[in-house]
Amino acid sequence: MTEIQPAIWKRFSKKQSLERYGIEFVLLLIFIWATQSVDIYWPFVTDAPAQAVDLLHRMTPPSVVFIKAIIPSMIETINIATLSTIFAVILSFPLAILNARNTTPHPIVQMVARVIIVTSRSVNELVWGLIFVVFFGPGVVAGVAALTMRSLGFMAKLVSESIEEIDHGQVEAMRATGANGAKVFIFGVLPQVMPIIIGTSIFRWDINIRQSSVIGLVGAGGIGILLTSSMNMFKWQNVSMILISIFVVVLAGEYVSATVRKKLT
Amino acid sequence: MFSVKNLDKTYPTGQHALKGCSLDIDNPQIVAIFGPSGAGKSTLIRCINRLVEPSSGEVFLDDLELTGLKGKDLHNARRQMGMIFQEYNLIERLTVMENVLSGRLGYVGFFNAMFRRFPQDAVDEAFSLLERVGLKGYHNQRADALSGGQRQRVGIVRALIQHPKILLVDEPTSGLDPKTAMIIMQLIKDLAIEKGIPAIINIHDVKLGQDYADRIIGMADGVIVFDGPPSKVTAETLTMIYGEEDWSKTIRKVEDEEE
Amino acid sequence: MSDTGASTVWKRDHFIKNPILRWIVILVGSAYLIYAINDMNFNLDRMRTGWPRAVDFFQRMFPPDYSRWTMIYKGVFESLQMAIIATTVSIFLAIPLSLAAAANISVKFVYVIARAFIVLARSFPPILVAIMFVKAFGFGPFPGILTLSFTALGFMGKLLAEAIENIDKGQVEAVRATGANWFKVQLYGVAPQVLPRYVGLSIYLLDINLRASTIIGIVGAGGIGGALFNAFHRYEYDTALAILIAIIVIVLVMEFISSKVRSRLQ
Ligand SMILES: Nc1ncnc2c1ncn2[C@@H]1O[C@H](COP(=O)(O)OP(=O)(O)O)[C@@H](O)[C@H]1O
Ligand SMILES: [Mg+2]
To answer: Domain spans of chain A?
Structure first.
């Protein structure tokens, strides 16, 4: 007979819990470093609630008559979102083909496509806006160009991933009929990626509605321009009305996008 | 009318899948290729229409040598060979009719293909072939709405509408239940006879192969180890192809016929 | 083979089967497009003047000018600090928020308020939130941190609430059956089920926040974005390119780390 050992149970072994505490400790240190060294003027922070109430006070009630100025500007915003989505879809398609492992004509071409996609995706639309305002001057054209540039990489990345994931059997079947590369593509590849292209386009349009309302802050057209000018003139009741309109349009866009995507799939 | 000479294939992975295979088909017949998984059956068939590039050897369709062809010549040669696949490989999101007409892709131009403008005689033929395989009225159904047996019928029609000189068939019945498998084999056999063309059929179901083929080719490890009529297939042949096992049950039928 | 004689027509089904509806969609669609493109006031003259400006822009942009290295370095660090603080704040606050916004746990009244907050926080682009906070509280990283926390809270709250709503009820009931109180039910019945998702989302959130923190400086909310904006406005495009490259690098590095950690967690 062996002596009965008192059963000890612990969730983690000693090494495991040491590791966990270690990670948690490091995270805590990072957090402390960040809060201690960040350049915050603390009186601003203590004063914040009062300031917030003050601003809210100046913003109420929202100016309903200002809606007259908002509507044309909002239509422009939606146009920017729609046009840039369309341009991005068209331009991203060849880019996606050049970037997908199984459709790229050459590794060097693929590299170039990849660089374009990464650049497009990692530069924010406001930065693209700044750049295109330099080219075209302030206005809608710069806005459309900026959002097109930003959406391009997003679309191309997702579409080329879906091209890489197609069922290769269907492609083989088309090759076996004696079709050349282009015809193999439109029968063997395109039908398989079409749902992704459509779904992603609508999704991107939804995102672009949101983004097109801010690119005006750098002069690239849309409601953001109206917002900036209202703020510069301290017309806070106009500002709140603009914010409400943006909120409504963004929600509507999200609803439309979700409904259409559900219908199509 | 068709011959393969010393076909050899080594994959980039180093896998030596075909080791000097030769075969001749002189008359329209059903040739069943037996062999365990990995024997090189699919590789052989794919090297014929060059979905896989053979490492060396020659393939003759009538007097045309296929292994050296490039570009347009290769496409024209492929359209003379109809292929039927194990996984059907239909374009899932397109209709039955579009799938069938895709068999004519080698004959139409790019924009006609894009806008689905196929010549009327192709459409007529598609309708009559669909009726022939029992799919009358299915032409506007999407392929992903069909059962396995129905899909394979579409696959057969797609191959036939190419007006092929030979059918290359890779395990046409593996995904099907036994009854449907027999119907599909019968269809392929009947249609090949009607069109007067030979068919090479990879098949791992020994009994099914024996029932429908005029000639059996046995492959093991990339080598053709048997070539003869179904009646010559004995337990020893099967052991040679598949390795040691009790074959008495599988081949009883052949012996029954001989009695 | 049977010959059907009379030839049968086949045409691919149209995407929209009803011809009237189809033509309405086509006409309205193209009319809108023509109008929208026209409304852009795109003219070749502007293109023509734009071209030399673009050339000039690129000429001034290269090579990137790293001489103000300390400014870039400071901005990047500030962005990093903002992202870390905001992520920490929001992953803690997301716990009560998501419990409040989970239909299977919360009570109706609290649920509606929590969901309303989430919708509000998710609908506005961070830049817009940032500009409002800057107007209310002045320039600097403080409104930036508030912005990131606010938008991140909306994102995290929504996804976490969904995760909670999708948990296995049986496990929760088993814990409740032991006689555990509400708090213990959450701790033993709910938390273990959503923990992996929570950790994954937290890292993803840091990724998102870092991205946003490099941009909101454009409206004065701290971080490297402010330096970028200034460089543009002083026409110092070579400095702007240097900053842009710095931003791209940290965004890509963070994306890489985040995806590596998340795939390890799964
Ligand atoms: N694409 C490929 N790349 C590398 N090896 C392959 C490839 N296709 C098949 N093989 C190898 O070649 C051999 C023959 O395969 P296969 O022709 O598919 O045999 P079967 O059709 O008789 O089952 C197998 O060992 C297989 O692993
Ligand atoms: Mg095989």
So the answer is: 66-264
Q: Are A113 and A98 in contact (CB under 8 A)?
A: yes
User: What is the distance of C-alpha A6 from the center of its chain?
Assistant: 57
- The answer to whether residues A223 and A76 touch, using CB atoms and an 8 Å cutoff, is yes
Residue to mutate (ligand 1; options B16, B34, B43; most atoms within 8 A of CB): B43
The dihedral through the CA atoms of A155, A156, A162, A167 has a sign that is positive
Secondary structure (H, E, C), chain C: CCCCCCCCCCCCCCCCCCHHHHHHHHHHHHHHHHHHHHHCCCCHHHHHHHHHHHHHHHHHHCCCCCCCHHHHHHHHHHHHHHHHHHHHHHHHHHHHHHHHCCCCCCCHHHHHHHHHHHHHHHHCCHHHHHHHHHHHHCCCHHHHHHHHHHHHHHHHHHHHHHHHHCCCHHHHHHHHHCCCCHHHHHHHHHHHHHHHHHHHHHHHHHHHHHHHHCCHHHHCCCCHHHHHHHHHHCCCHHHHHHHHHHHHHHHHHHHHHHHHHHHHHC
Domain range for residue B54? Answer: 2-258
Average pLDDT over residues B13-29: 91
Instruction: Answer whether residue C87 is part of any domain.
Output: yes
Phi, psi of C245 (to 5 degrees): -65, -40
pLDDT tens-place string over residues A50-86? 888 888 888 889 888 888 889 999 999 999 999 999 9
pTM above 0.80, yes or no: yes
- CA separation for the pair C152, C251 (Å, rounded): 17
Lowest-confidence segment of A60-64, A93-97, B147-151, B246-250 by average pLDDT:
B246-250
CATH number of A66-264: 1.10.3720.10
The CA distance from A218 to A215, in Å, is 6
Question: By a Cβ cutoff of 8 Å, what residues of chain B touch chain C?
Answer: 95, 97-98, 116, 120, 123-124, 126-129, 131-132, 139-140, 194
- Residue B18's domain is classified under what CATH number? 3.40.50.300
**What region, left, alpha or beta, does residue B216 occupy, with left being phi > 0 and alpha being psi -120 to 50 degrees?**
beta
Residue of minimum CA distance from atom 16 in ligand 1: B40
Give the total number of structural domains in chain C: 1
Cβ of B38 closer than 6 Å to ligand 1, yes or no, is yes
For residue C25, tell me if it sits in a domain.
Answer: no
Tell me the ipTM for this assembly.
0.89
Q: Which residues of C touch B93 (CB under 8 A)?
A: none
The shortest C-alpha distance from A227 to chain C (Å) reads 10
Domain count, chain B: 1
The parent domain of residue C206 ranges over 69-265
